[in-house]
Amino acid sequence: MPDGSSNTAGRTVLTYGTFDIFHIGHLRLIERLAAMGDRLIVGVSTDEFNAGKGKRSVVSYDDRAAIVAAIKGVDLVVPEESWDQKRKDVVAHEVDVLVMGDDWTGKFDDLKDVCEVTYLPRTAGVSSTEIKQLLSALDPRHLEEMSQAVSTLTNLLEHYRDLT
């Protein structure tokens, strides 16, 4: 287990994520992680693992893994296929520090016996989930709903004007 020093020489850093609809928050995270050591391993959630969590990716696993692998500072991409693989990955890759987003704070503290565990704050104002929600408004079904809502509001305003 690491001695807790701030020296990054020889340190292997590991993180996991879906990395769907790659955005600036993902890039900033990878840059921060790369600066924490001199070897960065990124576990990218497979489509099957995401489906088991009730999530559906817009971008396929193969494409997401290729995008992450192409980022400067990423040394290895591994598929994240299950919750319990983290301990195995830490041991197999001789990981010094596991870093996760602060939305997971405390969830992986059981790994502190094999590596340092750190939780970083997410980049404010951007997430794949928020981007997906914004894009869903462009879905033709939602556009029809919005059109009906605007029509209803217009009728209400006209009725209100007639009353005044």
TrEMBL record:
<dbReference type="GO" id="GO:0016779">
    <property type="term" value="F:nucleotidyltransferase activity"/>
</dbReference>
<keyword id="KW-0808">Transferase</keyword>
<dbReference type="Pfam" id="PF01467">
    <property type="entry name" value="CTP_transf_like"/>
</dbReference>
<protein>
    <submittedName>
        <fullName>Glycerol-3-phosphate cytidiltransferase</fullName>
    </submittedName>
</protein>
<keyword id="KW-0548">Nucleotidyltransferase</keyword>
<dbReference type="InterPro" id="IPR004821">
    <property type="entry name" value="Cyt_trans-like"/>
</dbReference>
<dbReference type="InterPro" id="IPR050385">
    <property type="entry name" value="Archaeal_FAD_synthase"/>
</dbReference>
<dbReference type="InterPro" id="IPR014729">
    <property type="entry name" value="Rossmann-like_a/b/a_fold"/>
</dbReference>
<feature type="domain" description="Cytidyltransferase-like">
    <location>
        <begin position="14"/>
        <end position="133"/>
    </location>
</feature>
